[in-house]
Amino acid sequence: MNNKEAHARIKINRLLEEAGWSFFDGKGRKANIRLEKNIKIREQDLDNLGEDFENCRNGYVDYLLLDSSGFPLIVLEAKCEEKDPLDGKEQARRYAANLGVRFIILSNGNIHYFWDLKKGNPNVITRFPTPESVFQLNRKKPNPDRKRNNIDNKDNTIIFSSRLIWIKL
């Protein structure tokens, strides 16, 4: 890891902690962040990677965020500050598919995207989602026919998907 990537990771670490994610057990909660998780890449994924990755059999998820039971919830792909976070989009999608993960965060420490794979393309976010907000989002089954900002009539929740804000009426 070079200095530019390390600088981006310091910012990402801070943003994760500010959002309530934890690297270590303590203060009544368990660690819910794993770093550099080795992931076996499936044969079909290698075919999709093309010539640049012909000899690659393993990959490393930069950050794996876990739910309260310790299961993978979010893949966070980190890039150095000079790179567009979207450069890691397909790599993160493959990791998420291999892990059965629905959510991805793409970040270079300055620009961040949250991506719900069941809803469409990544959306720019200004801060990282809290574990609780993602747990709630994960429980909801997305309906592709709903518009971006709307009211879910079943539980009167207003959903602002681009900012991950939930308001109970």
Explain what this protein looks like in three dimensions.
This protein has 169 residues and is α+β, with helices and mostly antiparallel strands. The protein has one domain: tt1808, chain A, CATH 3.90.1570.30. Helices cover 25% and strands 29% of the residues. The protein is built from four helices and nine strands. It has helices at 3-18, 43-49, 89-99, 131-139; strands spanning 33-40, 58-66, 72-78, 103-107, 112-116, 123-125, 149-152, 157-160, 165-168. The chain has a six-stranded mixed beta sheet, sandwiched between helices. The protein has a three-stranded antiparallel beta sheet with strand order 7-8-9, with no helix packed on it. It is globular and about 35 Å long. The protein starts with a helix and ends with a strand. The model is unreliable at 40-57 and 146-169 (pLDDT under 50).
